[in-house]
Amino acid sequence: MLQRPARRCEGTAMGAIVLDLRPGLGVGPFTLGMPICEAFAQIEQQPKIYDVVHVKYYDEEPLKLDIVISFPDHGFHLRFDPWSQRLRLIEIFDIKRLQMRYATSLIGGPSTLATFVAVYALFGPTYPGTYDKDRGVYTLFYPGLSFAFPIPSQYSDCCHDGEAELPLEFPDGTTPVTCRVSIYDSSAGKKVGVGSLMDKASAPPLPTGSLYMEEVHAKLGEELFFTVGGQHIPFGASPQDVWSELGRPCGIHQKQVDQMVIHSASDPRPRTTLCADYFYNYFTRGLDILFDGQTHKVKKFVLHTNYPGHADFNSYIKCNFVILGTELEEDDW
């Protein structure tokens, strides 16, 4: 896993923060299903709260494992599906560092232990959970929410046949304290917890008509076709054509050309010059369109994947494009 260096902004003392808990929906400003760019925007808006942020991904195969945004000072992290880059799971791994507000009650943090009895009293009765004997963990499930409790080996027999009497209390009168909280979409009816149960979490379905992850067909030598909005942008289109189809661009920039000055030993640095060509930048679509500076016609499309580790990561929303060539079209792919 590759990890970006942490950043620390001024003005934050380490300690528990309070975030609203929304079972099946999210915690604080982070909502299940949100694109990773929106999560970064929330972080940037509150630098005094989220002052230490780790971004982790699998460098060798970034599309194989989750992209994780972690807040070590606050004891939780966000797991994003590596392909869609949407939030699929929120995990609180250190409940003493994060205090959650549910309705009018608080749980977690350094002052309010999230014990089994406290959780059961706050969230109410539920079906018996599951006991993972190999991990020594008992998981209690609510819709879109689960709590994992470590069970000491001497009390493992309290969980008969994988279940336990609720609320769970040990023979010595103590009750286990939560070691992990998982917040996930419950629309599919899946139970998500630690270990292999973590992989069952998926991002909620996109709203009807959502343009995020809209499939864009790139027909080689011909055009771009947007499958949700129905727009066609052919090569040779004018700026007016593009505006009418996609709306105002997020930015307009002239193309830069780097030329190495190879005849000057005293100044070997590259010099940047401007050419007449210019780009329309559509950051929210993951798209740049290059126009010829003389004819003002589209000459190139640049489609961005928002690949982790790339210099442009988080500058563009991921473009979900499919490249169609003549042979592929004949095969109806």
From TrEMBL:
<comment type="similarity">
    <text>Belongs to the PHAF1 family.</text>
</comment>
<keyword id="KW-0812">Transmembrane</keyword>
<keyword id="KW-0472">Membrane</keyword>
<keyword id="KW-1133">Transmembrane helix</keyword>
<dbReference type="InterPro" id="IPR005373">
    <property type="entry name" value="PHAF1"/>
</dbReference>
<dbReference type="Pfam" id="PF03676">
    <property type="entry name" value="PHAF1"/>
</dbReference>
<protein>
    <submittedName>
        <fullName>Uncharacterized protein</fullName>
    </submittedName>
</protein>
<dbReference type="InterPro" id="IPR039156">
    <property type="entry name" value="PHAF1/BROMI"/>
</dbReference>
<feature type="transmembrane region" description="Helical">
    <location>
        <begin position="102"/>
        <end position="123"/>
    </location>
</feature>
